[in-house]
Amino acid sequence: MRAATLRDRKLVTDIIAFTFTANPGVNWMLRKGGNHERKIRRLASYAFIKSFVRKGVYISQNEKGVALCYKFNIKVFSLVELFHQLRFALTSISPYRFSAILKREAYRNSQRPGSGEYLYFWFLGVMPGGGNAVFEIRDEIFRISREENLPIYLETAMDRVRIGYERYGFETFHYWENKDEDIKFWFMKWEPERNVV
Questions:
Q1: Which CATH number fits domain 2-194: 2.60.40.1120, 3.10.350.10, 3.40.630.30, 2.170.130.30?
Q2: Which end is more exposed in the chain, N or C (fewer Cβ atoms within 10 Å of the end residue's Cβ)?
């Protein structure tokens, strides 16, 4: 696994967009109509930039897998990040959901430690035919967690993804569901001191 450079932006965005397409938590936010793929790519581009400026974008050796994982309390101001965030928000998010999205994101953040002393594992995606990319990325993220002595937090809106993370030693510590919108989130963590090799 290696850290991404700016030249990897298209590669990483492609993999994120491919994976986000089937994510109900992502699709719920988006405007109806128009070019759905373009909206997903704008979110993927924003996710890449936000993670990149926090030194948290990783690519597997075969370039089929990517992870966005960074120390959450890193404070960074980036005009490029702000541009991508605004472009996504103004062109891709449903204006009727904007308030609900802000509340949902605030709620998600409130479930993690207020100190920000953790690694936030925002995304893991592997393209078809990625082979062992997921294991390579997993092992390296766990190594970073142990080296920094920081727990890893994540959320997923997909039950099959939750099951996969549980196999890797993540524990669900909170569950949230909005039945009206058919959106679910499993809040998960992995603690290095509990997963000593």
A1: 3.40.630.30
A2: C
